[in-house]
């Protein structure tokens, strides 16, 4: 389990607290498999693992360590909704990158922390393959984008309007580079709650667990 899925149990013997660590790294792999040389977090593995953690009475809290370049939009949102729906205390720690669909995943936890050098990239939805230049296509893109901005706004202190401004200048389809935020700036803008590292993440999660005891 540890080797395959980047999971382990962090146990504080003194306080009797058990924390499940789950890593979300590389590309969020969805309905299609990524190349053999690509580091991925597999959607079909994560969903049952999250359900198992929710049902496991021994696990008192979950720490998500995140370093992802993004990936499948619908599957990433599904994982984010699963994380947000957990009843146990959760903390997300962004240690490297949280790009694209990684942003909803990062803000889905109860408390969010980003390291000083970690980066966040917020950009408009991008599609691969054939794209039809028709009004329906752009409406579909907008629908997906609204789902993403709506989720982020609900789980952070950033409004949907601000998120849309970060993504793209309205009406200029070629300007899709989006916005890059680094560490402290992402906290100042309201996307995350705290700048810190693994010590702060564990301390915060233990505090949340104690408050529920």
What descriptors fit this protein?
single chain, 213 residues, alpha/beta, nine-stranded mixed sheet, globular
Layout of helices and strands, plus pairs?
Blueprint: H1 2-5, E1 7-12, E2 17-29, E3 40-42, H2 43-55, E4 61-71, H3 73-84, E5 90-99, H4 102-107, E6 111-114, E7 119-122, H5 135-154, H6 160-167, E8 179-182, H7 184-188, E9 194-195, H8 198-212
Parallel strand pairs: 2-3, 2-4, 4-5, 5-6, 5-7, 6-9
Antiparallel strand pairs: 1-2, 7-8
Helix pairs in contact: 2-3
As a percent range, the share of strand residues is: 25-35%
Poorly predicted spans? 128-134
| Tally of helical runs | 8
Total E-strand runs: 9
Query: What shape does the CA trace take?
Result: globular
Report the biggest beta sheet as strand number plus sense, adding barrel if it closes: 9 strands, mixed
Mean pLDDT, all residues: 84
Radius of gyration: 17 Å
Q: What is the helix fraction of residues, given as a range?
A: 25-40%
How would you describe the overall organization of this protein?
- By secondary structure, this protein is of the alpha/beta class.
- The protein has 8 helices and 9 strands.
- Strands 1, 2, 3, 4, 5, 6, 7, 8 and 9 form a 9-stranded mixed β-sheet that branches.
- Strand 4 (61-71), helix 3 (73-84) and strand 5 (90-99) form a beta-alpha-beta unit.
- Helix 2 packs parallel to helix 3 (73-84).
- The chain starts with a helix and ends with a helix.
Short summary of the structure?
This protein is α/β, with parallel strands linked by helices. Helix content is 39%, strand content 27%.
């Amino acid at each position: 389990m540890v080797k395959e899925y980047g999971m382990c149990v962090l146990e504080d013997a003194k306080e009797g607290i058990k924390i499940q660590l789950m890593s979300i790294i590389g590309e969020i792999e969805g309905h299609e498999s990524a190349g053999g040389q690509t580091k991925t977090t597999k959607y079909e593995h994560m969903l049952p693992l999250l359900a198992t953690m929710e049902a496991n009475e021994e696990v008192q809290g979950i720490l998500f360590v995140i370093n992802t370049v993004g990936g499948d939009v619908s599957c990433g949102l599904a994982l984010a909704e699963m994380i947000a729906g957990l009843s146990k205390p959760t903390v997300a720690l962004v240690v490297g990158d949280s790009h694209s669909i990684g942003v909803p995943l990062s803000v889905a936890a109860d408390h969010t922390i980003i390291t000083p050098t970690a980066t966040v990239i917020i950009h408009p939805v991008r599609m691969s393959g054939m794209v039809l230049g028709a009004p329906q296509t752009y409406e579909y893109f907008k629908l997906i984008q609204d789902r993403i901005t709506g989720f982020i706004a609900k789980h952070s202190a950033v409004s949907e309007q601000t998120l849309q401004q970060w993504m793209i200048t309205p009406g200029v389809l070629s300007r899709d580079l989006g916005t890059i935020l680094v560490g402290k700036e992402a906290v100042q803008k309201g996307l995350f709650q705290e700048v810190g590292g693994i010590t702060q993440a564990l301390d915060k999660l233990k505090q949340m667990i104690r408050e529920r005891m």
